[in-house]
Amino acid sequence: MFSKEEAAQLRKLFWTSFGKSFPRKWLLYNTKIKGFAFKFVADRKKAMVCLDIDHPEAIANELLFDQMISLKVLLETELPEVIFNDAYELESGKIIHRIYVPFDKKFSIYNKDTWRDCYEFYMETMPKFELFFYEYEDFINQAI
């Protein structure tokens, strides 16, 4: 088991190593749609590439998620393993809409032996997600 400091150092090393090994400017929060952001997730037990919908206005939040649901079949063509969750609970307890692709291999941010496969998963999956967004950005924006 790691101390809090050691765990924090490993998490920091994971992300800096990813950035150095695979330098690229990611879309992430720059979607220009409030409450609509792409994220990389990595923790003790799992890794995933996500699209989080968490608009501060409840109606806009639902409209954005519904718009993505209407594109589900098209997104599944690019990412067959994508999961749509309309009530994803974050560690903080907050409930959001999350559309994500889980990393299907054994992973822990605290096990350096699992990092390389995860990085490759990120590099393969996020560009597909981003491309999909760019292709349907205008349609998604119509929701709000």
Automatic annotation (TrEMBL):
Q: What is the lineage of its organism?
A: Bacteria, Pseudomonadati, Bacteroidota, Flavobacteriia, Flavobacteriales
Domain (DUF4268): residue spans on this chain? 10-136
What's the name of the protein?
Answer: DUF4268 domain-containing protein
Q: Which InterPro entries match?
A: DUF4268
**A matching Pfam family:** DUF4268
What's the domain of life for this entry? Answer: Bacteria
